[in-house]
Design a protein that fits this description.
mainly alpha
Length: about 70
């Protein structure tokens, strides 16, 4: 399902950005840093529809049917 793909993509992007921040060091946290913007945007992805919880409910309803 697409919502599951979105959740996995956000998780992977967060991991990649975290590794890039570790490699770049403290300067990556400056507000003028493109990497700081990416870190902020990637973290916002977990709150943008669908959230991980919403994705799990959507997948469960599609596979198991709606709750009575």
């Amino acid at each position: 399902m697409l919502v599951g793909t979105k959740a996995r993509t956000v998780d992977t992007a967060q991991h990649v950005v975290d590794e890039a921040l570790r490699l770049a060091g403290g300067s990556a946290y400056r507000s003028s840093s493109e990497l700081a913007r990416l870190a902020r945007d990637v973290r916002a992805g977990q709150y943008h529809p669908s959230t991980r919880d919403s994705a799990a409910r959507t997948i469960a309803a599609a596979e198991l049917g709606p709750l009575a």
